[in-house]
Amino acid sequence: MSVLYLDWGGDFQLTQNGSLLMASGWDEARQLTVRAILTNPATTLPSGRKTPPDYIFDGSYGGGLGLYVGQDMTNKQLNQLERVISQQVLSQTFVDPAYAPQVNFQTYGVHGMLITINMNLVSNQTGTISLQVS
Prior knowledge:
The chain is α+β, with helices and mostly antiparallel strands and 134 residues long. It has one domain: Nuclear Transport Factor 2, Chain: A. 22% of the residues lie in helices and 24% in strands. The chain contains two helices and seven strands. The protein has helices spanning 25-38, 75-90; strands at 3-4, 22-23, 43-44, 50-51, 102-108, 112-120, 126-133. The chain is globular, with a radius of gyration of 16 Å.
């Protein structure tokens, strides 16, 4: 499957001849993994309000990292978040399931958090994804 080079929150990239740039290798893996982690599935919030999914073709797709933004994270919630991120990483076909991803959290400021994810691809490449959440 061909994937456009499109970072989360970014814009399309063009080649020198004006075509849309396609992602491959680590860039493709990184982009698809970030999308899987950040996309919100259909959810029922603690208030009872239901939220629609970001991806309308599969309401269960995504880790819903955005649902955690602004919350004071307890150790129990961090463990749950680590499980969700690991599940999303391992659900990607290009990730080597023999190696569990390493997920680390580093807090800063009042509600800021840096999440780093180390993962191994089936192509024997390794890489780190960094997500800054505040």
